[in-house]
Amino acid sequence: MFTVSVKAIYGLCAMGELGLKHNAGPVQIREIAEAHDIPQHYLEQLLVILKKAGLVESFRGAQGGYALARNPSQIQVPEILSALDGKLQVIPEQKKKNSLSFFWYDLQAAIFEHMDISLEDLILRQQNAKGEFIYNI
Questions:
Q1: What separation in angstroms does the CA of 53 have from each of 2, 58, 68, 81?
Q2: What is the pLDDT along the chain (137 residues), one digit of tens a residue?
Q3: H helices within 1-137, ranges in order?
Q4: Confidence (pTM)
Q5: Which residues contact 61 (CB under 8 A, 6 or more apart)?
Q6: Are the beta carbons of 47 and 29 closer than 8 angstroms?
Q7: CA distances from 42 to 30, 37, 46, 122, 133 (A)
Q8: CB within 8 A of 111, min separation 6: which ones?
Q9: What φ, ψ does residue 28 adopt, rounded to 5°?
Q10: HSE on the CB side for 133, CA within 13 Å?
């Protein structure tokens, strides 16, 4: 069954933070880690994965850090989750279809449809719901 890994949750938190500060320049790892209570060493590993996927870019120096590689409106949530966890799949692939296969495929389609939003939309939804972008894990 579909579960969201801690890696995906933390990665989405980091991407949300970078999306919020998209026009403010690079954000330091320490700042993201403290804001979302993510172990800094673990966050570094996630940002390397996201960089390899072309979702973030890094900047060296005193004012360095990480920033989104594209505008938040051009990054889809499934793209982030796939980069961190691989192929997204709600149900295990079935070699043989059974009488309930339609149910599982419909469920998977509904979940994917719900997830298919941009990072910008996710940030806006969170801001509208809570008045700010908060990730408490």
A1: 22, 13, 11, 11
A2: 567 899 999 999 999 999 999 999 999 999 999 999 999 999 999 999 999 999 999 999 888 999 999 999 999 999 999 999 988 777 777 777 777 888 888 888 898 898 899 999 999 988 888 755 555 44
A3: 6-20, 29-36, 40-52, 77-85, 101-115, 119-130
A4: 0.84
A5: none
A6: yes
A7: 11, 11, 6, 23, 21
A8: 2, 90
A9: -75, 145
A10: 20
Give, to the nearest 10 degrees, the angle between helix 40-52 and helix 6-20: 80
Domains and CATH numbers, the chain: 6-88+118-130 (1.10.10.10)
Q: Which two tokens stand for residue 96?
A: 């043989």
Q: How many residues does the chain have?
A: 137
Classify residue 111 by burial, with Cβ atoms within 10 Å: 0-12, 13-18, 19+.
middle
